[in-house]
Amino acid sequence: MPASALRTAHADEPPDPASPITTIATGTRGLRIYTGFIWAVTVAIALVPVFGSNYTKTFVLQALMSCALAASWNLISGFTGYVSFGHSAFFGIGAYATGIAIVRGGMPAPFAIVVAGMAAATAGLLFGYPALRLRGPYFAVGMLGVAEAIRVGVTVAEPVTGGGKGLVLIPEDVLTVAYYAMFAVAVATVLVTYRVATLPVGLRLLAIREDEVAAELNGIQTTRLKIGAFAVSALFAGLTGGIYAWQMSYIDPGTVFAGSLTVRAIAMTMLGGQGTVFGPVIGSVLLSGISEALWAKFPFLHTALSGVLIIAIVLFLPGGITQILQDRGWIPRSRQL
Amino acid sequence: MVTLVQVVVSGLLLGGVYALLAGGLTLIFGVMRVINLAHGEFLMLGAYASFFLFVRLGLNPILSLLLSMPLMFGVGWIAQRLLISRVDRAPLLASLLLTYGVSLALTGGAQATFTNDFRSVPFLSGALNIGELAFSVPRLVACVTALLLTGAAQFFLARTRWGKALRATAQSADVALACGIDIDRARMIAFGIATALAGAAGTLTSFLYTIYPEMGKTFMLKAFAVIVLGGMGSFPGAFLGALALGVIESTASYVTTTQIAEAVIYITLLAMLLLRPQGFFGLKEA
Amino acid sequence: MTEPDRPADPILSVNAVTRRFGGVIAVNGISFGIAPGTVTGLIGPNGSGKSTLFRLISGEIPADSGDIRLRGASITHKSASVINRLGLSRTFQLSRLYPQMTALENLVAVTRTPEREASDRARDSLAFVGLSPVADEFAANLSYGQQKLLEFARVLVNDPDVILLDEPFAGVNPVMEERLCTHIRALRERGKTFLITDHEIKLIMALCSRLIVLDHGELLADGDPAAIRADPRVIDAYFGT
Predict the structure, then answer these.
(1) Distance CA B212, CA B44 (A)
(2) Which pLDDT score, from 0 to 100, does residue B197 have?
(3) How much is the pLDDT for B235?
(4) How many whole angstroms separate alpha carbon C179 and alpha carbon C161?
(5) Does some domain include residue C134?
(6) Residues C187-191: what's their mean pLDDT?
(7) The domain containing residue C17 runs over which residues?
């Protein structure tokens, strides 16, 4: 049957020019506020190094790092529903690849960071292939194991990595440059998410989350897609880790493979909205702000309060802010958000 | 040969305590498909409970179990009732993140309350010599206690009415509900028992290792390796997995270093997930 | 050009296919071939192996032994997505849609044409089953019948040659039933091949030119509806009690 055969059945139907993927109905006030917020945050972040103090820069840099990690976690887990509890593995690989390339290879930092990103992506392919065959809880536990195994591996490989004592990079004052580099990575991650979400491939990833067997039986090449998304996610996490190592000029396994990095990324994504484009951005802005305020006010209870905050997010905002705004009709249901 | 036996036996002794901890973790997973990331923190609470009962009241840690286990059962019951019950039918991510939040809250609470100081319970010491073999007395006592408690839990699951209700809920919550089982109560019982077992494991570790707020993490990761080995959701599987892991860990640290032994544990976990994700006795859904 | 008298080569053939679950033989050495452009009914009591056979043909689970061929080429060891891409598609007894995606998105997600065409094809497919008005509704919010139609539309969107329908009429009201039958006949006229399971024997009899009857995982009878209706073994196994 030719491709047009189906069309003959309803030749009288007027063609509809709208995109197949739920699009924005224009003119919604809530939407203007929503996009206004995103733009305002972006512009403010771009201007921080011009007007802000070093403290502000350091704080926002931290928030950008969280945002990039959250957005990259969202790319695999938010879309496909494969909950990776080992995302810090790729951050850590990026950090160590950068550190080793600079310290042992004498490589200039920007190259080292790019190499680190590729190393993390390669690791994503390598681990993704076997790990993504596991379903649900098995994948979650498996990735937790991967992150721990790599952390221990890095600790053991002392001649190369410096072991548990950590690795000192050549100290440089690169705060502003690192700031913009991190900004660029965060923006790139969100832009890639936007591109994915507004193309059929985004729907295919979501189809894996909704019903993987049905997706496979409808011809979606789930394995290839999952691994691809996993590698891209790892790439951005690796770049983030690389910039972190460069800026801190000191890394140790306990810090860059910390499970708390993963959990922060997950909590931020859940707060903003999993499988959405800007959810991780909103989540990271809010949670970084709240976290900083808590840290300043209750330094001794910070960890405990972070825990309570995460519990509160799961209990009261499990679908995320974006979904709540959509349910109330304040912003349109659009895959572009 | 003597060393080999020695290494294997100390591994088995270690495995007994792991079995106690992992038994609870696998019970929770089996009954409600929740991966409890706060399980290690319940161990930590149990350890502190024994520490304070020992230091303040001079209570023998083993005897203190009579006090701490019902207490921890209550903690688990309340945790299930107030928190976990609200996510145990939600997607996996919700329960993972929630229990991680509980874990952070407990660790942070312990840091604020008990400080980050390392503590220990000077209870039992010395070794028991049998021929050329020497067994650490505290480890022996810990292992025997752990085996008794694990056995009691297994008896409860296999023989009692509520134990059967729990296993029915694990098989299929819907069918259990249709058979008139109060599955909400079954879940609270399961979580309570699991928490009491974790607390008891904490008591046993209190006189074997140092006590500090973040001690739960390492134990929890080992417990994960155990339940993956045994098959997630299988209580007898966790027992065998724990003994296996104890021997693997003990052998690896004897042959190499403690650190490499830790790596071996995670590699075992990953290899098992890849080769046989359902473990020795697990649920066939991986 | 094939001669009109010669029976066409089967587009789908199942040769001595067996599948066990533990100790139970769900499908035991079943063989049949299906000619292109026909509607064949696959019937049998519950547990007779119909669902397993569907899962085997669509590649969801592998066969223990035997061979399944599509247009003469073996698909026995191909993955489900590859089989779908080769032109064999199925629906499910209980619709398996992507609930948090709109009706249109459910189709776009699986459409294998360049991006621009994907939208058109998806809309055409929706219009064909009469679901254009609910294109932007979440699949989870559709009625049971609409969900069945949407799943049918999702199967059609990639223009497969062979379509497996798993109990398409179960729980569907008479108006929907009639529409579905019309669609199936219209598509058969265009050369599509159908294999349908259902318990609505009257509908199956009316729709199918041939019936294959399974019982306890074995092929019990195979022939035109009139012959099947008269077959004492079938009456015994199926219509009897």
Answers:
(1) 8
(2) 95
(3) 87
(4) 20
(5) no
(6) 93
(7) 12-87+160-240
* CATH of region A26-40+57-327: 1.10.3470
Instruction: Give residue B283's pLDDT.
Output: 56
First-to-last C-alpha distance (Å) of chain B: 39
Two tokens, residue A37: 């917020």
What CATH architecture does domain B2-275 belong to? Orthogonal Bundle (1.10)
Q: How many domains does chain C contain in total?
A: 1
- Cα–Cα distance measured from residue A263 to residue A285, given in angstroms and rounded to the nearest whole number: 16
The minimum CA-CA distance between A262 and chain B, rounded to whole Å, is 11
Q: What is the DSSP string of B57-75?
A: H---HHHHHHHHHHHHHHH
* A315 and B CB contact within 8 Å: yes
The secondary element (H helix, E strand) that includes residue A323 is: helix A320-327
Q: Does C186 score more than 80 pLDDT? A: yes
Is residue C150 within 8 A of residue C142, CB to CB? The reply is: yes
Strand pairing category for C12-21 and C24-34: antiparallel
Q: What six digits make up the tokens of A236?
A: 């951005």
Q: Is A296 exposed, middle or buried (0-12, 13-18, 19+ CB in 10 A)?
A: exposed
Q: Which of A56-70, B129-143, C5-19 has the highest mean pLDDT?
A: A56-70
Q: What is the pLDDT of residues B53-105, one digit of tens each?
A: 998 888 888 888 998 999 999 999 999 999 999 998 888 899 999 999 999 99
Q: Is the CB of A195 inside 8 Å of chain C's CB atoms?
A: no
Q: Do B97 and A81 touch (CB under 8 A)?
A: no
Residue C48 is assigned to a structural domain of this protein: yes
Separation between Cα atoms, residue B109 and residue B261, nearest integer Å: 31
Query: Tens digits of per-residue pLDDT, C66-123?
Result: 999 999 999 999 999 999 999 999 999 888 999 999 999 999 999 988 877 888 899 9
Amino acid sitting at position A137: P
Q: How far is A71 from chain C (nearest CA, A)?
A: 21
Helix (H, G, I), strand (E, B) or coil at C198: coil
Per DSSP, B182 falls in state: -
Name the token pair of B225.
């390796």
- Domain boundaries in chain A? 26-40+57-327
CA B29 to chain CA centroid, Å, is 12
Does the structure show a pLDDT above 60 at B282? yes
Collect the ranges in chain A with pLDDT lower than 70: 1-27
Of B192, B273, B177, B179, the closest CA to residue B228 belongs to B273
Q: Which two tokens stand for residue A164?
A: 């548990």
Task: Let me know: does A320 contact B124? Beta carbons within 8 Å.
Answer: no
> CA A134 to CA A137: how far, in whole Å?
8
Assign residue C180 the CATH number of its domain.
3.40.50.300
**What are the structure tokens assigned to B162, written together?**
């509520």
pLDDT confidence of residue A245 = 96
Kindly list the residues from chain A whose CB atom is less than 8 angstroms away from the CB atom of residue B267: 149
**CB contact residues (below 8 A), chain A span 107-146, against chain B:** 130, 134-138, 140-142, 144-146
Rounded to an integer, what distance in angstroms lies between the CA atom of residue C223 and that of residue C208? 10
Residues B143-167 pLDDT 10s = 888 889 898 888 888 888 888 888 8
Alpha-carbon dihedral of residues B214, B220, B221, B226, nearest 10 degrees? 160
pTM recorded for the entire structure: 0.90
Its ipTM equals 0.89
* Ordered alpha helix ranges (H), chain C: 50-57, 80-85, 103-108, 115-128, 144-156, 174-189, 201-207, 225-230, 232-234
Six-digit token string for B145: 């206690």
Handedness of CA A137, A142, A143, A144 (dihedral sign): positive
The SS3 call for residue C191 is: coil
Our CA-based measurement puts residue B258 at a distance from the nearest CA of chain A, in whole angstroms, of 10
Phi, psi of A44 (to 5 degrees): -60, -45
- Give φ, ψ of C70 to 5 degrees: -120, 120
Q: Does A209 touch chain B (CB under 8 A)?
A: no
Alpha carbon distance B262, C23 (integer Å):
41
